[in-house]
Amino acid sequence: MPHSDEVSRVVHGFPHLDTVRAAIRALYRRLSPDGVRRYESSLPASDVAVEDPEGLHLGAQAAARALVRHLRLPDARMVVSFRAMEHAAGVELTAGPEYFVELNERFARPAHRRDIGAALAHEITHVLLHRLGLAFPTTPENEILTDVVTTYLGAGWLLLDAFRQDGMSSQKLGYLTPEEFGYVLAKRAEVFGEDPSPWFTSAVAYDAWVRGREEAARDWRHPPLVGAGWAARRRARAGGDGGFPCPACGQRLRVAPARGRVRARCGVCATVLECAP
Asked: By three-state DSSP, how is residue 80 classified?
């Protein structure tokens, strides 16, 4: 997993949305809607906090165990170590039952220990995807998939909160932009009725969550959804019916012409949508 420590290197905006939406669809197809709903509670920061009295290595091991439980990984023992490395973290994917996670030695410093849980969340999700046999064709797409799944299953908000920035330096973990993390977090919040706003300790992370939430809200204003408004639906009819994306997972849907309001049910994520003629 990469990390950035330079303000100029932090990319913003939504350059990966197509891959993000494909990742959400792939997750639903692999786990099923009922399987995804098993992750109804997000991981609290206290479960992965590494307290100094505990000792660095014992604390990191405890955080890893908490993530294994949260991600519902069976028989997965994580061995966590620290060393000098270019990236933030890495994991050795094997048949198990032991997996070896390496963290950048900077996480051993007191100022960065609060982000150990975030770094572990991404790497342990790699283990989950490995066991599920869920992967995308290229390495960049696969890393985006990992960030999306980490966030959608309730642990990736830690990755967004690890984003900090001031006039001289910054820190960002993961492959998604801060706003894309906010977007996926908003998608999760829609499904589970969560409000992650109080969880953020980083002001810039909170701002990214707000921008991501705004982008996610636009997905619900696509014709023929009721939220699109009459004028937008009329323009869409004039351009022909090419279908519309499910606002929850992006699956392409079609609705047959009908009088009055109709409902559409997404076959991938099972979201029921209110539509209008």
From this structure: strand
